[in-house]
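Journal club prep, shared notes

We agreed each person brings one worked example of a sequence with its structure written out as tokens. Mine is Kinase family protein. I'm keeping it raw so we can talk through how to read the token line rather than staring at a rendered picture. Sequence first:
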Amino acid sequence: MPNDTLAKHLFHWENQTLEWAMRLRVALFIAEALDYCSTQGRPLYHDLNAYRVLFDESGDPRLSCFGLMKNSQDGKSYSTNLAYTPPEYLRNGRVTPESVIFSFGTVLLDLLSGKHIPPSHALDMIRGKNILLLMDSHLEGNFSTEEATVVFGLASQCLQYEPRERPNTKDLVATLSPLQNKSDVPSYVMLGIPKLEEAPPTPQHPLSPMGDACSRMDLTAIHQILVTTHYKDDEGTNELSFQEWTQQMRDMLEARKRGDMAFRDKDFKTAIDCYSQFIDVGTMVSPTVYARRSLCHLLCDQPDAALRDAMQAQCVYPDWSTAFYMQAVALAKLDMHKDAADMLNEAAALEEKRQRGGRSSV
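Then the structure, token by token:
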């Protein structure tokens, strides 16, 4: 079974019903992912639904990156079936952190029932105490009624019409954590799949020095390449007027300069701090700064943060192979080796395309 199997197989895994304990694990892992996003200042995970759940090589459920990729600070981006859309979005066209909680409630319903049930219909059934009627019949009663009641109660809270009446992400984790009764059983065992220890596939495109370093996860070589390349790939990503050349701008560039010196000297924690000062001002965007901070996070054993920065570099410069290469390394560090190999191939293809067009790339 490939590691990127979508959640359309979530409930009946290769014609086998996903057991109750695994459904509880999926719910908790999604809640933990949302809580992590929230604590990292990314609470607006757009269009959360069961199809956002992916599985890694160990069978562990993960929340995919697509929602974060489309994340907008103003909350105006949303795309889903209107029957499952948070009511406040229908009123004002905006997504809030509470809207994400509503969407999480619809995912809980999917996990419990094994099918899509419009929230309004589900709430009527919950209020009517018809919880057992909502449960997936394929479970054949192999679940705890007490645990199911807790999860239904949490779903009901998440689906409240008024956003302020919904729980927050920490409440989700606190409610779901005590229900995990097979924590010592690996996910791949519960899914009935072998844990494959496969080497990453051979890249389909010839690799540049950057690609080769990333395929070998040679962080020292990547560091040397980024130092040598400097900021040549940032050309055209910023257009600044004379009026914008303020003291704040000079301070921001000074922070970047300090970050560059720390990066060159391999003081990666200081580099993270300085680059963060540059990024937080927000006047300029630099894919190179994101790529450099991504490598710093990798060297500080922070692959999740590294992946986010590499994704941000891609948002700034969508066709930049370095952004894809850095994502490949971060994904490999997260043991998502097939995804890493796919990203590596995509980066190599972008390099090849740019070279055919006569533009050099790292």
